[in-house]
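ok so for the tutorial part 2 we go from a plain amino acid sequence to predicted structure tokens. step 1 is just haveing the sequence, like this:
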Amino acid sequence: FNRSHVLNFEKGDNGGIVSGTFIDTYHEINILLRLDERNVVLDARAAHVRIPDKVCVSGATGLPKLVGHSLAEMKKKEIIYLVGHRDGCIHLSELVYDACRLIRAAGANG
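step 2 — the prediction. this is what the tokens look like for a chain of 110 residues:
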């Protein structure tokens, strides 16, 4: 059983883009987060390439709730509440949280 998270952050003058992929034996989920220059989410999308259950798809409906939030300042509980909650996909929440950690590590807080 293999599992990996792959994330990429491209920072430009007018903001940035975070793309990420979660892959394991049963899942392949991609995210794309478009950010402004202060790392506030402008657009959030997910694509489910391979999923084992309907709950994985329903979790993606929460992703647009990230719009308007500063990715660098979000806490894990907040992400779980907005993206995953009880009807969502924990793997999607984990991928978004890893994106937050990437933004912080890149020193891209503004």
